[in-house]
Amino acid sequence: MNLLLADTRPFFDACPRCGSRALEKLRTHSHCIECNYFETSESDPIESLMVDLNQEIEQLDAHTKQEKKQRLDKIQAA
Ligand SMILES: [Zn+2]
Fold it and tell me: How far away, in angstroms, is 55 Cα from ligand 1 center?
């Protein structure tokens, strides 16, 4: 499954979402390691599906992190 293998030479560019130069530009997609911004370079249906799934996972992950942080903040504030 070469489809799942990322390009071997990542190039970091400015992220359109958070502005930091943490956007990893790969052959099939770009991904920001700072804010998890994700975009595809090709309109491959399978790739698009993977992006959708990835974004869902990231949103779930971000939500979980946020919940954990809120709980931590409450504990620390107590
Ligand atoms: Zn970003």
Answer: 13
